[in-house]
Records
---
Amino acid sequence: MTSASGNATGLEILLSTLQSSYDVQNTLSILQILDELLSAGTVKRIRYMISKGGSEALLHTLINMTRIFPPNYDVLLPLLHLIIKVGQRDKRFGQKAQEIGAINETLNLLKHSLPQPKYVTPCLWVLKIYATSVVTGAALGKSGITRLLFKLISPYTTRNTKAVRRAVDNGYIHRLLKLYQDWHQRDTQNRFTSIHKALLNCIKNITNIQAGKKAFLQADGMRVLLSASQAYGSSPGLQPVIKLATQVMRKCHPKQPLPLLTVRSCYSFLLPNAADSQPLACSSMFPQDVIAMKEDDEEQDDEDNIENEEPVCNEDDDDLETDLTRLRPNPQLDRAVEELKQYERLCPELTGYFQDSGRNPNGPSGGCILNPSKHKTKKMHLSMQRPSVDSSKACIQTVTGEERPHFLSQSWSIDSEQNGQHAGYKLSQMRREMVPFHDPHVYTMMAEKTRSASDYKSLAFPDYWGHISPVYQEPLTGQWSGHQRDKIFEDIQRLVSPGDILNKVVFDADSLPLVTSEDDISLKFYSHFESGNLRKAIQIRKYEYDLIMNADINTELQHQWFYFKLSGMRAGIPYRFNIINCEKTNSQFNYGMQPVMYSVHEALCGRPHWIRVGSDIYYYKNHYCRYNAATRGKKEASYYTLTFTITFLHSKDVCYLAYHYPYTYSTLMTHLHLLEESLNPDQVYFRHQTLCSTLGGNRCPVITITASPGAQCEQLRQFWNRQYVVLTARVHPGESNASWVIKGTLEFLMSNDPIARSLRDSYIFKIIPMLNPDGVVNGCHRCSLSGEDLNRQWSDPKPDLHPTIYHTKGLLSYLRSIGKTPLVYCDYHGHSRKKNVFMYGCSLKETLWQARSSIDTATLKEDIGYRTIPKVLDKISPAFAMNRCCFLVQKSREATARVVVWREIGVLRSYTMESTYCGCDQGKYNGLQLGTQELEEVGAKFCAGLLKLKKEEWSCSKQLITEDGAVFDSDNELPNDRRVTPSDGSVDDEPPCSEEIDYDTDNCTEEDDDSIDLAAELSGTSEDELELDKN
């Protein structure tokens, strides 16, 4: 008894001394004694120590030692070790810690210990013991321990691959998902979103490796996150949680190849000297199956795969040309003068000799006896007269189905309730409503002469019948917050519930036409006509279809243009269409653009319009991918989905859908023929000649327009001294808006407008309205039959592979060789990622300023006349935006028409004019999509802008300034300032859109990683936020 009493007195003395000690050395000595006493004994000694106030003494000592800064871990580590040993045996230890005030001190110690894992572990054990008390656990929650713990573990799931692998091997993914599901089910009032986000961040980081993704899928993580995200609804406070969940699901969705045998075009064309020529994209070395196989073998971190995303266009200053020897224009001929003489036939206005008139090529240069317009022949169009009444009736019978030749056998069909006689009457009535410069009979004959790689045998009704621009303008369509994510959730649902998916192929251009039953309610698709592009259609759900575009011929790339027919629809039903193999990383479809549709039913009712249609339009990255041939399959390139919904007005209608207003090669040839027939040869000098034949055997037209000369020699001399303006368009076949703009240019120059008359008196226009007929005919987006982008071949075009570019450059070189360098060259294009109409030009000084070159630009001379036309257009053309123009010269664009014509031909005013596919965000058309009427207006206004270059014409007539007075009032000064180039300017053909875009659902990257900012959250959190819902 005596011995026991002495030991008890000694322990109490030690504990009392420990509790009141502030000396580190004395405290450490007492801790060592207590540790030896407890280590040598049994659990009974620990309980005895607790009964003598041991727990309280240790907690008071912890408070005393944590107030010493910086923390002295020589004493803190033994102290924490004893607290762990004693606390595990004291059921009221957590409550005692709360009463004494040790909780906050322990949390502060943990925060200071974060950089050192060996100091963190004892703190975590102590906190775990505190939390055994429910009351103390709630107090810890109020103190922000949950966020602190997630901040602690997050770095180990982000960068530490070994730790991530151990987490996967130990089944943490399943536990995290279970914990997340538990929080989602219990947190019915969504008061703990920070905890939801923290759990998702952990899952997101662990799934950065393939093993983590596989474990996530095996744990049914897609279903867990999808059901939770859908249950959250559209509450603004939960959007960050939904964003993280969506990122995880999209990242873990298995990569899949497109449902095609090969991604290469289903059509091919044998090139001349095929053994020596290489298309742009060689045959894919990696079959589609390899994508799925390789995914199982990949074990590298996703952070290394971020580069696998499609690169955006390079707009860095490093791409700017700063070498003066290359930047300064250096006009020189790339061919012998004798070779260039072959282009004399394309300039009969210079010699008074016209090849198709049969006159002597060595005739007098004075030309006083010749009025070319009165002696022209129409060799190309001898068999193309306007149809008679009988032929018109035959045409109507053909279209209505009463009498169909082979060429129109599948062009279109109409509702069986509309008999042929009634439809024919409507069509005959429509013929009386003039579609300017279009005739179905002439179009048919032109189409019969058009050659295609696919050898199509039918006509699309909109192209055959023509298009009238609607009288109303169409606004930009809006997007609703969260709807894009809903579309993606529907896509993910396919993986979660594959049994609900039909996956029925309803159209395949690679195979024979599919046979369907009469009671089949699926839509019918067709694209085997001029400019058509649809490769495959797959029915996913009853009213949902996946569509796949065909690649450009001889490539496996360039998917953007689509144009196809569909029928068999039911009125009032919303049909969803998903074009799943888009390539560009962004699109104006995210900013108000809509596709266009032509309804045969509406046309028969007197409304033959292409109109903008579609709702719920979104453009986002999907889970389909392909290997990049340029990197030999080491990197994957992702595809993007364009999704839109259409509710048709008429059942069993026949409709045509397209990316933009179609304008076919046959339409162009019809237009030129009818323009030629309509002119007054006494006023307009018009020549329609053939520049060359394309690879596919189609003729590339070149048009000459000017004013017919008088009979006097002085008038003829003025005729031959006129300056040249050269215009080209449609080098990229998918840019059909460029054809509508050049159509406006042609019609304006042929009109009786006083400005048009003045322009014809001042200039000779050489217009090549379609540089890539083969691409247009075959429904390509960017390339010719050689599989190459013709606008990257201007530096060294090959006559056998790029004949239209070779001969266009030859014509320009010929004009320079005879002292007739064009005053203006402009290449018309379309732009898919920017609004408005704008220009790219070439400036030596502005390029050096933008590149921050050390070259003294004050010593360089440069004519600033290149800014004249854009500045005038900014004032007279409602769709034009000067602040979008750019005059930089990039190394990556040195082979484009604009740069080569400026540098090698010596044309100061060498431009690319870009017209948006979408609409405008400024000026008169702000908030509106551009239609064909507005595009044609752009072409007409461009011509009006040319008057500024002819100062001696300004006072010719007051009539010229009634409507376009701004033509004569534009500032043409360029200050010697390095800030003249717009900050968003770029000479890239397709620069990224500068507008904000919600890519929350995109694959995760370091940039979009939404990690938890604990400091910010703690400062903005009320004390009651983490109070548990006891209900």
---
Amino acid sequence: MVPNIWQNPAVDTRLPANQPDYQSSVRLFHSQLPNYAATPLRSLPELAQALGLKAILLKDESDRLSLPSFKILGASWGSYRAITAKFSLPCTLAVAELKSYLEGKDLTLFAATDGNHGRAVAFMSQVLAIKAVILVPEALDLYTQNAIATAGGCVLPIAADYDGVVQEAQRRANATNGILVQDTSWPGYEKIPAWIVDGYSTIFSELEEQIGPLCDDDVVVVPIGVGSLAHSAVLNLKSRVDLPRIVAVEPENAPCLNTSLHAGMLQSVDTRFTIMTGMNCGTVSYTAWHDLNKGVDISLLVTDTQAHEAAEYLKGVQINAGPCGAATVAAARLLVENGLAMDIHRCRFIPYPASSINALAFSHPSNPDRPSLQSLRLALGRVNGDIEIWNPAKGNWSQEFVLRGGKDRTVEGLVWTQDLDEDSDLGRIPGGLRLFSIGYSNAVTEWNLATGMPLRHSSGGHAEVWSIAVQPRWRKEDGEKSKTNQLIAIGCADGSTMLQSTDDEELTYLRALRRPSNKKARVLSLTFCDRQTIAAGCSDGTIWVYDIRGKVKTTMHLGSGPTKGSTYVWTVKCLADNILVSGDSAGELKFWDLKTFTLVQRLLCHDADILTLAPNAEGNVLFSGGMDRKTCVVVKDKHTKRWRAINHQNIHAGHVKAMASIETKEMSVVVSGGIDASLVVSPLKMSGSENTRALPRLPQTPPLLSAATDRLLVSWWNREVSFCKINKEVLQRVSIQKSATQMAETDSLQQILVQGEENISSVSITSDSNYLAIATNTSCKVFVLSDRKDDASLKKIRKQESESLASQGAKLISFSPNGRYLLLITPQNELVLYKIPAGTSTKTNCKNFENSIRLTRTERPIEAKDPLGLYNRNISKIAWSTDSTMLACADLSGNIDAWMLANTQANGAAKPGQGNINGHGNDKSSVSEESDESEDEQLEASSSIDGLSWRLVQSKIPKVSSAPLMLSFRPGSVMTTAHDDTAIHTSSCDRLVIVTLQHEILEFHVRTGKLSDWSKRNPSSELPLDFSRIKDRIMGSVWDVSEQKQRIWLYGSSFLFMLDMNQDLAQAAHRRHLKRKRSTRNAGGRLFTGKKSNSGAGDRAFPFTDFGLAGQQHDESEIEGQFTEGSDDEDDEDEEDNMWQAQDGAPTESLDKSLLELRRQESGSLAQVVDASGEEKDISGLESTANEGISNKSPGDLPYWVTFKYRPILGIVALRTETQELAKDRDQNTTTSSSDLEVALVERPVWDLDLDLPFLS
């Protein structure tokens, strides 16, 4: 069973501009046929108004060349081209001349049909005075058979379905030397179907004459039989800059395209009876499939009842259409009525210059015999000075934290160290992890992972640092008696090499290994061969080897480069078998024996400089990257001990500047990055059997927000903030391809350049756009925005003076939804809340941001065995309830804290100005002794401001299994009294939705700390596989709430996922049976299941399969990247049994036990959907199929929906719609929002980024 509405994940929004050049020839040919005239375009204004659309236009093909179908356009041109090709005639021959030429020739046209195609072929045979034999299924109604005979064809019923009739027609045509004119194709029969598709171009040339070019806001609904008309629509409409969306509609009983799109490959289906006989086809045309797979945005199924009702509607407005033609109207109604036509403004003019990757480093060394550590992290350094901390999470890669850079800063090298382990009563306590960086200065910087700020700098009397390396950790088995922390070696521009010590939690100069040389050859690369030996590659073509005491062991020379100058040794690495490998500017790898210090082998594997290397732990596989953008895989032969290159890939669009590798029991990957700003993960152990994976180059936390009431879109990067009003005038002036530079020059894109050295860490704006707050790690600034009198689309900007904010840095900053509070998360992870007095005028320069309190978090013990220490206590997410009376925050360890607003004056507690102002006073002093006991049970420490108390909720939300990626309160009924701060009222806004790193979706009641009823009924194991299999992580969310729906739209860099929380997923029963039903066979007959089984990079690579009419398949042995032996394809017997199974296969124990207890409490048994007979349902390999309980509903009743059309997504924010009833004046008593969701979706494709990509075409 397939879903009735399917968003095509493979759609390509940037098809090449290849506008067909045959339209004029086809149009000229059709004009020669009897009764030719352009068919009318009919408007359906009543239906458009009812659906809330600007217009619905119906291309009326009920009278085309005196036939009731468009099929004559394709059949006539296909027949004409086939005949002229058979007799080697020019394709410019007039129809009358061709008819004369065919006189006396025994020629027969053959066609298979279950509708109008055969009638059209018969009509063409009558025009040319030749014979036509039309084969039809025996079940075809007599009316249609008589119509074909009347048109001039000899009707021959065949006892078979449509596909069987096609095969019989082909056999008869071959036997009689006739011409088969068929609109479906298969391998070996492709030309004539392609000509038929070309014939339909007349429809779209007429359409453009009638209404002008279509744009990306338009939707074209096309009926699908074998896909020829839709194929023509894709070729003609998707070949322009502004791409309209194409929706394909099929009968529910013949979903051949829907099934194929869902499976990602061409598949045939068994059809059943449908009144849409012309669309009753079981296989999509072979030649059409590729373009349909890339060009159809949405596939939609309609029932016979829906098609009949649409036909009756059209009959009532005087349009004569059969069920096939009316199916498009039924599809349009379903599409809009079920909320899938969300108003999306796609914006590419919002600037965001992504920064190139210069350095990569894993926090732990490789150890294939050790399980992956929870503390494993990847540090990524960029040109703009930012250092990103990525969590591999066993393949669920996520950008977890960002150490902000600043003006004129860059990161050129990164290393991690780990202090010595300690023995205690708790057992062995691992040493703490520390991160160091260099960047075109003479300093080495250590970073405070808990605050995201530099901890210390170490500089000396040497030149700029060009390279950095870290000593391997002390191990008892190495025989070294003295325990010392790891040393850091740095190479400088003057040729010197220095050692620095990390003992005693300091970073101090230890000794110089090599003094500045007369040549001043830069030390470009460093590596520790072991704890006592260092190798340095220099810009004069030499490699120096010395011990850590400074004694030179040898100097190895590479010789002259290709231009007779010195060869630059850009990178050196030491392998496990005492072999040193170097990569140089000649594009060569050179292997050196460190015992004899001789060159063992040289291997030319790049066309330009080799910039980086990454070996595996065993030392027999080596990855290299260079300026030719190639990534080369080199392996060592077991027998000859010689190295050879086995693979070259262009996985980057520019220079590959950095690589790092990691191997554990679960993971074995190489990560690489360069000037294309993209981090690419390649399989190491499974190279050739798994795909590479490009991680999003855009931030995990979107640098994007909106002032919804004012329709103001705000974005930021580095030290700049941009904002623009998204109104109709702007949208009409801006095309999807307009660059940010063009927008700034011609439109209302305004910018603020923040003074200072630090990059922006966070930005917030009030919903009415009155206040804009900008934070760095050292200070915060607030700006007042007001409309300019001369141009309402532009803002007047004025800085709001505040000494308190100016001296207060923040990593996160957020205004409350009502604009009365400003929350700061300091680098020390303290929560500072500022109160904005009600009724304050933004025109006055009063001190609005001086009245503040500090909120107290729950005290939790620090995990002694966590090498990351306080890093995991970094607050990463904050959320406000829609009524601004609740606040929640989450840290990287999964802890959630929440606060509630309560009235303290009414209970005799602290009055305005007493205690807790600016963080002074006892945090608990504002709790009234006379307060209600039930409230005291749920509220703990509190902080008051102006008579209002923010109290920490004592009924704590349990710790979630992984870091939350998204926090959001579900909108509820909001009742507020403006200006009356003493009136605190109840609301239903206390449900907090959390999405974790493992893509678990949980909902809690903040007041009680318990799972909501929806979350109890819908554990994360029931989430559709369409969502749980998505590799990119969640970036943010947008709510679409009305009386009928409670939809949350979750999005990541490559996807948009809708979840209706008014409904249950109800898939538990099917997923428990899935393990026995879902396995399918691939092209080579190997068993393939949906289980995620990879080494941390992409999915398993498996052979491509072609399914033509005859079901041809490739032999698996002919395909590279086969499944390896020992694959665990059959090890998934119990994969779905555990309802808390994480996406990456993590065991149930990884989830906090308290969370499981909450699910069991008061939930009874889980809701199950089973067949009344009790028998198992047969579920195909299409695992995202809705279950039986869902499939009986209409498409809009489906509880989820996903699309991969928009990418890469920088962010999505809600905008105020024309019908929104949001209260502008705070004197209003209620706040309601429209059910019409309007959003701005900002895309930043790589070709729009300001990057120097010489290889990007």
